[in-house]
TrEMBL record:
One of its GO terms (molecular function) is GTP binding. It comes from the Bacteria. PANTHER family: GENETIC INTERACTOR OF PROHIBITINS 3, MITOCHONDRIAL. Pfam families: MMR_HSR1, YqeH-like_C. Residues 56-223 form the CP-type G domain. This is Ribosome biogenesis GTPase YqeH. Gene3D superfamilies: P-loop containing nucleotide triphosphate hydrolases. InterPro entries: G_CP_dom, GTP-bd, GTP-bd_ribosome_bgen_YqeH, Mito_lipid_metab_GTPase, NOA1/YqeH-like_C, P-loop_NTPase.
């Protein structure tokens, strides 16, 4: 018979007639090598297109369709920006469908981390935010950790459902989907991943063997994250690339730490105690007296206290002061969305303040590690 050409990506017979059917290839692209259908072409190249992301409302509307069908939802969060990347409205939209929480970027945590303790912490936080999860998988898409476990969990839970992958921008969704594709389909090239927020276009369907699909949804832009506020050149500085090296500071009341020029932490009142900063190693910490902090910032923002540089400072919102009273008793973190956190090691309580660009989410939480 006639030799029907097949897509090198998904294996579907190539056709020029129906754009919404498998194997569609525009006639003018027929000569392209390797011969792949438009859908596979998009999967391979979509990240190179112009940046598009969606706001929360639009995203939740997109998600509306999940509740009405049998689906498995993989909700990816970034352990470095847990409260900033958690989709807290998710529960209302997924209906009774199972949700697997993939906690990504665990390679950033210190090697000595107690993973069981971390998993319990994640579980408690989810409960606090009203999120039900059928499974929590700690993973690193980058270092290929926890990935077998994730695939196993997906296989156990999926049945014959479609798999929706949801996440905020920059949580590693593309990196993870690359791994899924490598495992599930014949696409031999990877998607391009990108460091810049919002580079995933609208829903992308990745066909599975059984006629179901993995559906990659757009990254949600959450305006309260540092990663959405900084200019491109500074993103690589606030987002750690390597495992965090916790920095311990013994502080007396009346002392201040500057994290580059991104943020400032004041220890206003309390007994001498230690604070541990979990932030990107590329951000320099400057210690000074609280009474000198305003003047230091006024004189040296964008220079000694950088990044942001003088130029990128113009694009940053002014700082808001958050006064935070740390209770006595157990350990607490002061969490700054997308920048990291400061662990309060003492149990005597403390009065502190964080100065961060307006809009950045700052909160206290039980210590993560
Ligand atoms: P998306 O916007 O959610 O699709 O995220 P990407 O997959 O494009 O990743 C965003 C950034 O996070 C990139 O700089 C990735 O290299 C980085 N990244 C993704 N997964 C991991 C991970 O497991 N560990 C670390 N340290 N970085 C990761």
């Amino acid at each position: 018979g006639q030799d029907i050409k097949k897509c090198r990506g998904c294996g579907a017979a190539l056709q020029h007639e129906s754009q919404d059917k498998p194997g569609y290839l525009p006639e003018k692209a027929a000569g392209r090598e390797p011969v792949i259908c438009q859908r596979c072409f998009r999967i391979k190249n979509y990240n190179e297109a112009a940046a598009v992301a969606v706001d929360q409302d639009e995203f939740l509307r997109l998600l509306g369709q999940i509740g009405n069908q049998e689906a498995l939802v993989i909700h990816i969060v970034d352990i470095f920006d847990f409260e900033g990347s958690l989709i807290s409205g998710l529960q209302r939209f997924v209906g009774n469908n199972p949700v697997i929480l993939a906690v990504n970027k665990i390679d950033l945590l210190p090697k000595v981390t107690n993973w069981n303790k971390l998993r319990n912490w994640v579980q408690r936080q989810c409960k606090e935010h009203g999120l039900r999860t059928s499974e929590i998988v700690l993973c690193s898409a980058k270092k290929n950790q926890g990935f077998d476990r994730l695939l196993e969990t997906i296989a156990e839970t999926r049945g014959d459902r479609d798999v929706y992958v949801v996440g905020a921008t920059n949580v590693g969704k593309s990196t993870l989907i690359n791994r899924l594709i490598r495992d599930y389909s014949d696409l031999d090239e990877e998607l391009t991943t990108s460091r810049y927020p919002g580079t995933t276009l609208d829903m992308v369907h990745i066909p599975l063997d059984d006629g179901r699909a993995i559906i990659d949804t757009p990254g949600i832009v959450y305006p309260w994250r540092f990663s959405e506020l900084v200019v491109r050149e500074d993103l690589g500085v606030v987002m750690p690339e390597n495992p965090l090296k916790p920095l311990v500071y013994q502080l007396d009341e009346g002392q201040t730490l500057f994290f580059g020029g991104m943020c400032r932490f004041d220890f206003i009142q309390g007994a001498h105690q230690s604070f541990t900063a979990f932030i990107s190693g590329s951000l320099k910490i400057h210690r000074t007296k609280l009474e000198r902090a305003d003047a230091l910032y006024a004189d040296h923002a964008g220079e000694l206290l950088s990044p942001p540089s003088k130029k990128s400072l113009e694009h940053m919102p002014d700082w808001t002061r958050h006064e935070l009273r740390i209770p006595k008793g157990s350990n607490w973190d002061i969490f700054i969305s997308g920048l990291g956190w400061i662990k309060v090691n003492g149990d005597q309580g403390a009065l502190t303040a964080v100065h961060a660009p307006k809009g950045v989410r700052v909160l206290t939480r039980p210590s993560m590690i």
